[in-house]
């Protein structure tokens, strides 16, 4: 989808401005993401959109947090949804953060840089 391509470009562009290089692994839906994770391609952080085809972000998150190996992966919601029900459900399920994507690219970049910088200094647990 075009929207997904634009989001990927924005994310890639933002990551390229950081001093440390990061590898971006993109999944087009929740099922694909679970398959990638089950193949032991464990990332340091998951940036999760709630609006995905086949399996929405909350369904993905619920499966992720029940898995004994994957449940420790910090998952930050990166979405346009300001729905309080979504927000509460995500925190109840065990997310590490909930970031609403701003419309302006500069604001998007600023928020994402803060998220990445924060997780760069954390000690991460991988199952």
Structure overview:
This protein has 127 residues and is mainly α. It has helices at 2-16, 30-38, 57-66, 84-93, 105-120; strands at residues 46-48, 75-79, 97-100. Strands 1-2-3 form a three-stranded parallel β-sheet, with helices on both faces. Helix 4 links the parallel strand 2 and strand 3 (97-100). Helix 1 (2-16) packs across helix 5 (105-120) and helix 3 packs parallel to helix 4. The mean pLDDT is 87.
Descriptors:
127 residues, mainly alpha, three-stranded parallel sheet, 5 helices, 3 strands, 9% strand
Percentage of residues assigned to helices: 40-55%
Poorly predicted runs are: none
Whole-Å distance between the termini? 33 Å
Mean pLDDT: 87
Strand content: 5-15%
Q: What does the largest sheet look like?
A: 3 strands, parallel
**Outline:** globular
Topology, pairings included?
Blueprint (H helix, E strand, L loop, with lengths): L1 H15 L13 H9 L7 E3 L8 H10 L8 E5 L4 H10 L3 E4 L4 H16 L7
Helix pairs in contact: 1-5, 3-4
Summarize the structure.
This protein has five helices and three strands. It is mostly helical and 127 residues long.
């Amino acid at each position: 989808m075009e929207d997904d391509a634009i989001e990927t470009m924005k994310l890639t562009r933002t990551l390229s401005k950081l001093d440390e290089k990061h590898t971006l692994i993109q999944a087009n839906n929740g099922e694909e993401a679970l398959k990638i994770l089950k193949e032991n391609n464990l990332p340091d952080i998951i940036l999760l959109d709630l609006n995905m085809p086949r399996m929405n972000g909350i369904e993905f998150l619920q499966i992720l947090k029940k898995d004994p190996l994957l449940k420790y992966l910090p998952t930050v919601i990166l979405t346009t949804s300001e729905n309080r029900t979504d927000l509460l459900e995500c925190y109840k399920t065990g997310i590490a953060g909930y970031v609403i994507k701003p419309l302006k690219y500069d604001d998007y970049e600023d928020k994402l840089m803060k998220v990445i910088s924060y997780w760069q200094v954390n000690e991460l647990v991988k199952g």
